[in-house]
Amino acid sequence: MHLPSPRGPLSEQVVAALSGDPDGRPIAFTAADPYGEDLTIALHTLYELHYRGFDGVNPEWEWDPELLRLRAQAERVFLDALRSDVDGGDDLDAELGALLVEHVPGNGVSHHLRDHGTWEQMCEYFAHRSVYHHKEADPHAWVIPRLHGRAKAALVAVEFDEFGGGKADRMHSRLYADLLDGAGMSSEYLHYLDDVPAPAIAIVNMMSLFGLHRSLRGALVGHFAAAEITTAPSAQRMAQALTRLEADPRCAEFFTEHIEADAVHEQIMRNDVIGSLLEQEPGLRADVVFGIQATEHLESRLANHLLSAWSADESSLRTRLRWPAPQH
Question: What is the per-residue pLDDT across 52-108, written as a single tens digit (0 to 9) for each?
């Protein structure tokens, strides 16, 4: 895993700093668009220090005070934008109810790929989602020590499934690597990071932000619930799309696994995790709502980016890549 290519002044400073050793010197924050390429890749690079890190980068950078100060400034810009771009409030029942509504006819990314999508578009979608699925369930694990009682036990039960029930070859991140192999793509960790634009990376940044801050534990639970509730229907459509495109069975397996698993996880997240958490800490209701709304906001931005590019017969990635034909 090598340092990514910078996308502006802020990420240039981050990459330049990480190329050397910590020396206590301040790293200046450069103002940037909260959803733009520069701040998004800078934040992702800073967060990656808490995951697998980078080849040749001094591990002491993970807790370097000056780098943490820079990250806090970038996080504040990103978090302030998320808070200002959603409705907020504490009507949790309305938010959860809205997640369960399937609009007919649908016009989302999974609908497009099921009905009209090309193999090239499917591979682009795989590349976008690889930034998240290579570390699926990892950001959510940070919230475990911040919970207690039934909420903790229930969330761990969901995470246990995400990590394959103790079987390495059934971990969802492993199933996604198998999907990429089945598509003839690279399954190396974050292989497509430099090709993926900000909208997909911002979703992963949001999860890392929520997971790393105890004050945002309610938002992380809200995000996790939104992801689990909405996955099963879209996974069904993705499996149908891959059948239509005659893709390798390994591609569809990732989605068929989620159809059944996430239907169960939905009930656990709603009743046992959120319900128990708010019994213990009712003051977190608005934070759970925020986590749901922020997730839907960033997912909508990604969907708009993908569909706009594809409708114009353009690549949704930063550069157009060549993909092998489907492997049957």
Answer: 999 999 999 999 999 999 999 999 999 999 999 999 999 999 999 998 877 767 789
What pLDDT was estimated at residue 261?
66
What's the token pair of residue 79? Answer: 């978090």
How many whole angstroms separate alpha carbon 233 and alpha carbon 263?
Answer: 9
Alpha-carbon distance of 228 to 216, in angstroms, equals 19
Q: Which residue carries 């400034």 as its tokens?
A: 73
pTM to 2 decimal places:
0.96
Exposed/middle/buried for 134, CB within 10 Å: 0-12, 13-18, 19+?
buried
Q: What pLDDT is stored for residue 328 in this prediction?
A: 65
Asked if residues 42 and 75 have their Cβ atoms less than 8 Å apart, the reply is no
Q: Closest by alpha carbon to 83, among 247, 256, 298?
A: 298
Sign (positive/negative) of CA torsion 251, 257, 260, 261? negative
Residues in Cβ contact with 302 at an 8 Å cutoff, skipping those fewer than 6 apart = 109, 128, 199, 200, 202, 203
AA identity, residue 77: V
- Cβ neighbours of residue 196 under 8 Å, at least 6 residues apart? 127, 128, 130, 131, 317, 318
pLDDT at 117 over 80: yes
The answer to whether the beta carbons of residues 99 and 229 sit under 8 Å apart is yes
DSSP codes of every residue in 276-324: HHHHH-GGGHHHHHHHHHHHHHHHHHHHHHHHHHHHTT--SSSS----P
Residue 262 confidence (pLDDT) above 70: no
